[in-house]
């Protein structure tokens, strides 16, 4: 690598929610920057006013915040290359577009949208480019005098790149290796629009240059734009400063056929956005990983493994480990299939891995939202530590923890009733007496008491454990039943046994 300071950027257009592919682009940029002690920049590419969506920029910032991928420079924290919002840089771009016109690499085009529409209708596969450009209204086809007149009359116009004929342009992609394009295949893209705003193509090149970007990593869908950008870097005389590019592989549908879309998420019942995205124009809510109950650690971990591995079997990585181990050489060219079951596995692993303390606030909110008040935080922590290995998504904490705070609302009586006997009733009545007399209240002691009584009454322990569990929990789940009894305490345990006995015998 050259000794140029590493500066990477994530350059989203604020057009809606952030797809998980977008967050993976952020992550790979971030990992690369941090690994090389470089800067990670967030630049908002909002030059397309028609596609601008209110709230999308804030949403992007919130996503980065949630994931803990905080930019070193952005519209919020600013930096030496401000502004970081392209709409606020509007005045910068015209000069470069005009320079390209002067050099003969770009030209003014005066065609109205209606004229272009007409051409598209009449000519199959119409492209504004080598084949048709001389028949259209632009500074290549018109005389100098006509052009001056049109410009003087402030006739609305755009500036287009003049794609050269019969050339091959190429670059070395850090993931794909040598990539080349025929210029004949590419149309004369608009660089500067009639409203004076640059298009993405011009703005991305100018800003990557002015912001001293050393590496540009973006999704594979931007590969077709590369020839235009390559020529702009060359024509503007900046070729030596061009960032090293890497086009990241697509994230594919679970069956591997095509790019994973928002629609696939809705169809298959899983999120594809980082966080809930509410579209105020359509009233549509697109669900997000965060709200479904993913930990950001798990979300990043699963994204990292979509297209990358460290060459070993290791799958669980902290962000610091990722920074240490990440390398673009190990990012695959092929698309990565998204597997929601695997995504949930990552979350379950991360819930196991993080300290209970890390989950306290989240679980408290989950319980309180369901009307369970949590007064004692130490108790909450003990409960979390007991049940966290059983939770896949954060809302699972409700089912797994609620009965530590209140009596079961429902009992799985059907699991008990068919095998219920008077002898068992007698056993539990006696157990209540024994428990009332119990001095120390700990799981091990309770288990001994319970088993001794069972032996005394000649009932198999196995026949009594499930009823006890249903009495305390309501269902056939949860950690070791005596651990539950220890935590909920003597009074509550006895109360629950007595209440359930009434139910079982009614
Ligand atoms: N503004 C483009 C986007 O929305 C950025 C592509 C790039 O990184 O060059 O993704």
Summary?
The chain is mainly alpha-helical and 506 residues long.
Assign the CATH superfamily of the largest domain. HUPs
How many helices in DSSP terms? 20
Label the structural class. mainly alpha
* End-to-end separation: 78 Å
Number of strands: 13
Question: How would you describe what is shown here?
Answer:
This protein is mainly α and 506 residues long. The chain has four domains: 1-77 and 249-354, Rossmann fold; 88-248, Glutamyl-tRNA Synthetase, domain 3 (Alpha-Beta Complex), CATH 3.90.800.10; 355-406, Helicase, Ruva Protein, domain 3 (Orthogonal Bundle); 408-506, Arc Repressor Mutant, subunit A, CATH 1.10.10. Helix content is 44%, strand content 10%. The chain contains 20 helices and 13 strands. The chain has helices at 20-35, 56-67, 90-103, 113-122, 144-152, 200-210, 226-235, 262-268, 289-292, 296-304, 319-325, 340-353, 356-369, 377-387, 396-401, 422-437, 443-456, 461-473, 481-488, 490-505; strands spanning 7-10, 39-42, 106-109, 158-161, 168-173, 177-182, 190-192, 215-219, 244-248, 251-252, 277-279, 284-286, 336-337. Strands 3-4-7 form a three-stranded antiparallel beta sheet. The chain is elongated and about 110 Å long. The structure holds glutamic acid (GLU). Glutamic acid binds next to helix 6. Glutamic acid (GLU) binds at residues 11-13, 45, 200, 204, 218, 222.
